[in-house]
Amino acid sequence: MTQDTLSDVLRGVRLRGAVFFSITGSSDWAAEAPAGRELAPLLMHGVDHVVEYHAVARGSCWASIPGGPSVQLFAGDVVMFPQGDAHVVSSTPGLRGRADFGWFAEARIEQLPLRLAYNGTKLVASAPPDAEAETHIVCGFIGCDLQPFNPLISALPRLLHLRANEDNAWIAAFTQQAVAESHARRPGGEAMLAKMSEMMFVDAVRRYADALPAESRGWLAGLRDRFVGRALALLHERPAHDWSIDELGREVGLSRSALHERFMQLIGAAPMQYLSQWRMQAAARLLLETRSHVAEIALEVGYDSEAAFARAFKRAVGMPPGAWRRERDQPEAAGERVAGR
Questions:
Q1: Could you report the per-residue pLDDT of 260-290, keeping only the tens digit for each?
Q2: 45-66 burial, b if ≥16 CB within 10 A, otherwise e?
């Protein structure tokens, strides 16, 4: 697999993490979370998509998508919901909770992670540490951009389970550190846990990609392919280059028709279509993270004219680049203020 391409995508979609809750559960308990699209405006300002994860520090529990997959978790395990599905974490399978996070937007939180306790479906916010609780889990969120283009999220499953083993012992250490931070509330704890949660997400993606069957399709399978992976690396390395399918084929050692067919089979898009989509994502990042003029950004991502770039960007996101930048520059929402981000 081409790791640099994966890193480029993770930077391009502005991956950022946070650890918001340290949760204990007793008796027959259930905690239910709404879909990520409902959580995003509450938890992280300017984020298109939220991936929720749960790491088990003590005990065991079940994680499930109602009507979909479920898995039993033990101490040291992590479960993620990359597609942003509504889901339930509970003491036994089949239990349902209350998917209400509205209180979080109004809460006055001095420091995260916030301690919560579930007894049945009853939630107690800002609960004190409970050494007697049967289960203790850490819940966090990974935010990223979906627009204009994020090839990674759709390549991941709805539920991703990381089992505790010697290879990912550091994840168990992260979980225990998050619990410790929720008790001690030391300066810098939020920032440290946020970075560690991003690392955990990247590690999860790599482990999932490494375990894909040989016949798999999708963006991660394309990264692992000898020819398509090399083509993706070149397109990401030089997105502003005036690529043609012929030149790209020569670079990777395939005819134009063979490369096109292999790219379509694995990625689901033609090489030049993929390049156009990635250019829009690269431009979006520059619009948000720099004060460069739109014309400068157009040149940097491979467009000869500002007008042509603006038309392409509007087709991708529904508005011109300048208007899109202004909309994203709005003052932080309450959820971002609460989250300390």
A1: 999 999 999 999 999 999 999 999 999 999 9
A2: bbbbbbbbbbbbbbbebbbbbe
C-alpha to C-alpha distance for 103 and 334, rounded to whole angstroms? 12
Domains of the chain by range and CATH?
Answer: 13-210 (2.60.120), 225-328 (1.10.10.60)
pTM, entire model: 0.86
Residue 42 to residue 101: CA distance in whole angstroms = 8
Element (H, E) at 130: none
CA separation for the pair 27, 135 (Å, rounded): 10
> Could you tell me where the beta strands, DSSP code E, fall in 82-214?
87-90, 114-119, 122-125, 135-144, 160-162
Number of helices and strands in the chain (H, E): 14, 11
Tell me which residue has tokens 């790599």.
206
| Count of beta carbons in the 10 Å neighbourhood of residue 276 | 19
Asked if 145 and 58 touch (Cβ cutoff 8 Å), the reply is no
Using left for φ > 0, alpha for ψ between -120 and 50, and beta otherwise, residue 241 falls in beta
Q: Name the token pair of 163.
A: 């089992």
Residue pair 254/227 in contact by the 8 Å Cβ criterion: yes
What pLDDT is recorded for position 332? 45
Phi, then psi, of 288 in degrees rounded to 5: -85, -30
Cβ(275)–Cβ(235) below 8 Å: yes
Query: Residue 87 contacts by C-beta under 8 Å, 6 or more apart in sequence?
Result: 32, 33, 52, 63, 64, 65, 66, 81, 159
Among 178-187, 192-201, 250-259, the minimum mean pLDDT is found in: 178-187
The tally of CA atoms less than 13 A away on the side-chain side of residue 127 is 20
Distance, in Å, from the CA atom of 13 to the CA atom of 284, rounded to the nearest integer, reads: 9
Query: Given a cut of 50, is residue 338 above it in pLDDT?
Result: no
Pairwise CA distance, residues 250 & 258, whole Å:
11
Q: What is the β-pairing status of strands 16-26 and 114-119? A: parallel
Short-list 80, 81, 61, 85, CA closest to 72: 61
